[in-house]
């Protein structure tokens, strides 16, 4: 399933919809203004919070947590930086870590687990300006809300650096 994200509205306090490939609203990203740290909620169309994304305070390399029901589901952190590709690691509370690598600021990167592609983020499929797609390749092997949250976290962290 492919999800479309409007790229230019990543400011705190902004809310925006992520649509599925059929143009239906799939997730609402609700930016929480006036918080001490960067906080976003990913909600379903009915308004239920699926995951909460928070910037970690006092992190040397910058990190964000993805929380569900008050418990940390994953921690997203920078792994290493090279001239051509960025690398991030997603440490899950349960299960093997996810690896995120590619050209993050160009919106061309992949999310993998043990070498298996779970999702690909790309602008190349789209002609609409300021939009990128999150193509969830293995919906049966991963939590779609988590993969969307990872993409949002990684792009946010890369833009801040």
Helix and strand layout, with pairings?
Blueprint: E1 2-6, E2 15-20, E3 25-31, E4 39-43, E5 49-55, E6 63-68, E7 71-81, E8 86-92, E9 98-103, E10 108-113, E11 116-122, E12 131-136, H1 144-160
Antiparallel strand pairs: 1-2, 1-12, 2-3, 3-4, 4-5, 5-6, 6-7, 7-8, 8-9, 9-10, 10-11, 11-12
On the 0 to 100 scale, the average pLDDT is 84
- Protein structure class: mainly beta
- The run of helices and strands is EEEEEEEEEEEEH
Calculate the terminal CA-CA distance, rounded to whole Å: 30 Å
User: What share of residues are in beta strands?
Assistant: over 45%
Shape: globular
Order of strands, main sheet, comes to: 1-2-3-4-5-6-7-8-9-10-11-12
Total count of strands: 12
Number of helices: 1
Low-confidence stretches: none
Sheet bearing the most strands, described? 12 strands, antiparallel, barrel
Overall helicity: 10-25%
Q: What's the Cα radius of gyration?
A: 14 Å
